[in-house]
Each structure stands twice: as C-alpha cells, then as structure tokens.
Amino acid sequence: MAYTPQTSNPILKQNWFQCIFIIETGKRLSQKQKSLYDNLNWLTSATVSGNAAFTATYASNGNVNTKTDGGTYSYDATKFNAVNGVTNPAPSPIALKQQDITYTAFMLPSVIKENNTSDVQYESTYTYGADYERIKSITKLGGTTTNTRYYFANGYEKDNSGTAREMHYISSPSGLAALIIKQNLTSSLTTPIQTIWVLF
Predict the structure, then answer these.
(1) pTM for this one?
(2) How far apart are CA 66 and CA 74, in angstroms?
(3) Is residue 117 exposed (0-12), middle (13-18) or buried (19+ Cβ within 10 Å)?
(4) What distance in Å separates the CA atoms of residue 129 and residue 143, rounded to the nearest whole number?
(5) 19/35 Cα distance (integer angstroms)
(6) Angstrom distance (rounded) from CA 22 to CA 164
(7) Per-residue pLDDT tens digits for 94-148
(8) Is the model's pLDDT at 199 over the cut of 60?
(9) What letters, b where the CB count within 10 A reaches 16 and e where it falls short, cover 120-156?
(10) How far is it, in rounded angstroms, from Cα 103 to Cα 176?
C-alpha cells in the first residue's frame, strides 16, 4: 500500500484495503477496512467488513468533539487541550467503575486496579528495567493470575496465560504499520498457528 509522504495516510484512502486472516482451520477469510479522512487529514470514519462505522468529529483547534466509542467531549475553558468530561453514548463503552493507579518514582504506572461489572477486582502490576522500559506485567482477577506478559525490544511481546500468544508490532518509516499475533504455539510448530495481520 502506498502512503502520502506529507500525511502518512494511504494514497487511496477512500478505497478499501484488504487484511487476510489465517485461522487454525487453515481457511482464509477476507476482512476489509475503509478509512475516510477530511481535508485536514483527520480520521473521520473507519469501517471493518460491514460492522458499524467508527466516526469522529473535530473542533477547529483539532480537539475531538465526538467519537463513536467515547461520546461527546468537553474541555477546560482555560487549558487548550485538557478534557474535563466525556458524555458516554448508550451502552457506555467507558467503564464507570473507579480506577486506582499507583505510580513509580519515575512516573510510570506501577499498579492499576479496577473492579469489573461483577465487582471483582482486576489488578495489573508492571515491572520496569534499568532503562525505565516496561519488561513485565502481571494481570490478576480476584487475586488469581490470569496473564503474565513479557515485553522485549523491537516491539515484541509474549503472553503466558491459558493460551500462549506472541505479538510483534511492525513499524514503517511513517509509524506503526501492522501487528502480527501468533497463538497456540508449540516448540515443534506441529499444531496450526493462528496469524492475524491487523493494518492500521
């Protein structure tokens, strides 16, 4: 796919581009995403394979006015880009539960806690390396570990939960271009591998 050098948007940005999903059965399914931009190259609409469209509108200063997954945004009167409220659409995509975040001495999240709809607490704990880069996270639900994720260099992540999963973020000169997800891996690779390419 070609991109404009000025905006990094696809040149044929109002046409469909295709993502191929290879699933465990070996069948190939086509997924199509359509992205539309306004004359300032701001994303206004995105649709994936006939699903409901994601839409966004903007103020003249570039602030987001509305988003399908967020509702209507309001801003502080004296701080240029400071969001001070969001009116959720129904059903609400933004959790209304309280979220508590503890930070490290170098101002990165250490522990994030939030209750789910059944009031069972989710807790994510993050570990950082000497360079302050995230190297590990542990997610718990009700005190039971549900996932451990390791973060490696060059955009590679690995989950150790019920199903092994690896993620590799693919960069391009204009930014993030794709995400490869592999699931159900074995050392011999004799079982089918699920690979999903998600284009941004």
Answers:
(1) 0.55
(2) 9
(3) exposed
(4) 25
(5) 13
(6) 17
(7) 667 788 999 999 999 999 999 877 788 899 999 999 999 999 999 999 999 999 9
(8) no
(9) eebbbbbebeeeeeeeebbbbeeeeeebebebeeeee
(10) 27
Paired residues of 72 in beta bridges: 66, 87
Sign of the dihedral defined by the CA atoms of residues 69, 71, 76, 79, in that order: positive
Q: Is the pLDDT of residue 167 over 70?
A: yes
SS3 at position 45: strand
pLDDT of 36-83, one tens digit each? 888 888 888 888 776 788 899 999 888 999 988 888 999 998 988 888
- Token output for 199: 């284009």
